[in-house]
Write a structure and sequence with these properties.
The chain has 312 residues and is mainly alpha-helical. The chain contains 14 helices and no strands. Helix 6 runs parallel beside helix 8, helix 7 packs antiparallel against helix 8 and helix 9 packs antiparallel against helix 10. The longest helix is centred in the middle third of the chain and has 31 residues. The protein is elongated and about 105 Å long.
Length: 312
């Protein structure tokens, strides 16, 4: 016997689709249009803008620095583990690692001392080689433009030695003096470069020539240097000369969106309502009358030095 299911299949396709299919479609469409909806439509809601503190490109990376320091200085760790921990920071910026490497120069292990010295020496040598090249370019320059460019580069490289903490003591003072010498050459050749005046302000500030730093900062702003980018440096300068009124004004002017995370609590302190500031000053006066003024002043502002330093 022949199977009957093909006949039944063709009959179903010929009967149900053209006849009952249209009726079923109309019934389903009617139900979809008139039946109550299962869920109510929820309109869009307005939410407040979230607070966001962008990280600075020049912020020191954490790279588990606490763990590295613990591993390197842990006397119970094997020398192999300590060397691996030290090598893990080899590619980090010198500003973030130079203090750690300098401390390790007095380590009991010869390998740790040699590796630390080599890492510091390599970072410093890379800059010194560029200094030598720029000095040759300055000597060979015949016109003002190449002289200006070479002098500016020499000032920047000497600043880099200081900023990256690659020089200390007399070498740091020498780098600052050299930077100021070349920045004078650059400003004499071109007085309208705001970046050069800003660099001059930073060099003079690190050399503790505060009046010169303020003058150079004013010239940088007059020549078009963005004020919002200079606010942290201006605030640090005001703090160093103990011009707290000016510091409060600069902190209030600094946009929250451009504040580094470590600067937020400092700005909050200096931008606090005057009532709180007056209470704080009254406390200071009370301690000052007891002969503790200097110590109290140091306690109040001690946390601001590091934050302002990192912000610039």
């Amino acid at each position: 016997d022949r199977p009957r299911w093909p006949v039944a299949l063709f009959f179903s396709l010929a009967f149900f689709v053209p006849i009952l299919g249209l009726a079923g479609f109309l019934i389903g469409l009617t139900i979809a249009l008139w039946a109550p909806k299962a869920t109510m439509y929820q309109p869009y809601a307005t939410v407040p803008i979230p607070r966001f503190s962008p990280a600075r490109s020049g912020q020191e990376p954490s790279f588990r620095s606490t763990s590295v320091r613990e591993d390197v200085f842990n006397p119970d760790m094997s020398e192999e583990v300590r060397l691996k921990a030290l090598l893990s920071v080899q590619e980090m910026p010198a500003r973030a690692t130079s203090n750690l490497l300098r401390e390790l120069l007095a380590d009991r292990s010869d390998d740790i001392r040699l590796l630390s010295y080599g890492m510091l020496r390599n970072k410093e040598r890379a800059i010194n080689e560029r200094v030598a090249t720029a000095m040759d370019a300055l000597k060979d320059a015949q016109t003002d433009i190449p002289k200006f460019q070479a002098a500016k580069e020499l000032a920047e490289l000497n600043w880099e030695l200081v900023y990256q903490n690659l020089v200390v003591g007399d070498m740091r003072r020498h780098a600052l003096n050299e930077g100021l010498k070349y920045i004078d050459i650059a400003t004499a050749l071109r007085e309208d470069d705001p970046g050069v005046w800003y660099l001059a302000s930073r060099l003079a500030f690190r050399a503790e020539q505060f009046e010169r730093a303020a003058s150079c900062m004013d010239k940088a702003l007059d020549n078009g240097y963005p004020r919002e980018r200079a606010l942290s440096q201006m605030a640090e300068l005001a703090y160093s000369v103990r011009d707290f009124t000016r510091l409060r004004e600069l902190m209030a002017e600094m946009p929250e969106s451009q504040q580094a995370p470590q600067l937020v609590p400092v700005a909050g302190y200096w931008c606090a309502p005057m009532v709180e500031a007056q209470d704080e000053l009254a406390s200071v006066d009370a301690h000052t009358s007891n002969g503790d003024g200097a110590a109290v002043d140091d306690r109040i502002v001690s946390t601001d030095d590091a934050a302002l330093e990192q912000a610039t």
